[in-house]
Structures are given as C-alpha cells and as structure tokens.
Design brief:
The complex is a heterodimer of chains A (about 110) and B (about 110). Chain A is mainly β. Chain A is built from no helices and 11 strands. Classes of the chains: A mainly beta (about 110), B mainly beta (about 110).
C-alpha cells in the first residue's frame, strides 16, 4: 500500500501569517497533488507536480504556492493566510504505471483565525 | 476536450435497495476511469478502476462496467448497506495527469 504522509495534521494560524503544509511519499511516484475540501465543494485541485522541480497550477491556485524539491516531498505554502483558506487539505501521489491511481494522505485541518 | 460528468448532490436510499451512481465521459479514446470513496473524516481512496479489456472491476460488492456505446462507467451495487454511506467521486483524469474530482455524489443509506 502506497504511503503518503502529511504534516501537520492540525494547524491553527493567524491571518497574514505564513503557513507551510508538507507532504511526503515513499513510493517513488512522479505525480503529486494538493487539494482542499470544503463542505459542498468536494475536492478542488490547487497545485500539482509531475516530478522534482515542477509545479503546475490547478483550478484554484490563487493565494497558494507549491514547491517540489524532491521526488518524495511536495509542499503547499500560504504566504499570507486568510480566513477563507480555512479548510481540510489533502495531498495525493500517483504514477503512470498504475494508471495514475491516487493515494491520499490523511489530510491537514487548517484553521486561519 | 476530454471530460467526465458525475451526478452531483445527495442520493438517499433505503438499506437493501440497489445503488447506481452515474458517471459519463467524453473522450476521443477509451480512458481509464475511476471511482473513489470517502467516508466521513477519512481520506479518499480508490474503490474501482476500469480495465483496458472487458473485465468488470468489483470491490466490496460494488462494480462498474465501462460502456463505450453510452460513454458511461456507472457505479452499482445490488443491495445498499448502511456502511456504504459516503462521498463517491468519479474524477476527470486527462492525459497530462491533471486529476479533477469535483463535488462528488453523497450517498446516504437509511434503515
């Protein structure tokens, strides 16, 4: 079973502060994704990556940056956190040789006060 | 371009009745299609995925058949259980690996 680990699991941040959400996968998957989940919106794609050094904008990238420094790690950065970014964030990884089946981390619950 | 459409919103069923959640696709080729399930306070996980041959994937009593004639990959189960209550996704998965999930279909099974 593929392993995707997110940290922290819970985070309380102040408005205007910087927040970094981390994701690590040990399956050597090329593709990694960041989603947020809000009630009534399902999963919305923020950023994704094809491999180390690459990041691509998803459907709702505004207010977020992403970083993929290595095959294993993919971070989501909120430079100036706002209350509207309060949500549950999921990281996922996948690879073409598995038809890009996605494996999700347990999620990070972020509250911006 | 390629796209996948899933019936969104809430589906409420009585325990024991059959389940069918709709998913249709638009593509110039036969895509890989998926169903993911997310139970309350858990992460999404793969439930089923289509095969390139004519095999019908099954898992936990659920199955889905890729029908090229109707461009569909509906999720079905003969008898709903209370534990099937969850959020179900049929994501759009384009060739460049942009994976879009949408709002999903919430299945609520009642006694």
């Amino acid at each position: 079973e593929a392993a995707v680990t997110q940290s922290p699991r819970n985070k309380v941040a102040v408005t205007g502060g910087k927040v970094t959400l981390s994701c690590n996968q040990t399956n050597n998957h090329n593709n990694m994704y960041w989603y947020r989940q809000d009630t009534g919106h399902g999963l919305r794609l923020i950023h994704y990556s094809y491999g180390a050094g690459s990041t691509e904008k998803g459907d709702i990238p505004d207010g977020y940056k992403a970083s993929r420094p290595s095959q294993e790690n993919f971070s989501l950065i909120l430079e100036l956190a706002t209350p509207s970014q309060t949500s549950v964030y999921f990281c996922a990884s996948g690879d073409a040789w598995q038809q890009n089946t996605l494996y999700f981390g347990a999620g990070t619950r972020l509250s911006v006060l | 371009g390629d796209s996948v459409t899933q019936t969104e919103g809430l589906v409420t069923l009585t325990e024991g009745l059959p389940v069918m959640l709709n998913c249709t696709y638009q593509s110039t080729y036969s895509p890989f299609l998926f169903w993911y399930v997310q139970h309350l306070n858990e992460a999404p996980k793969l439930l089923l995925k289509s095969f390139t041959d004519n095999k019908r994937p099954e898992h936990q009593g659920f199955h889905a058949t890729l029908h090229k004639s109707s461009s569909s990959f509906h999720l079905q189960k003969s008898s709903a259980q209370l534990s099937d209550s969850a959020l179900y996704y049929c994501p759009s998965h384009t060739g460049n690996y942009k994976y879009v999930f949408g709002a999903g279909t919430r299945l609520k099974v009642i006694a």
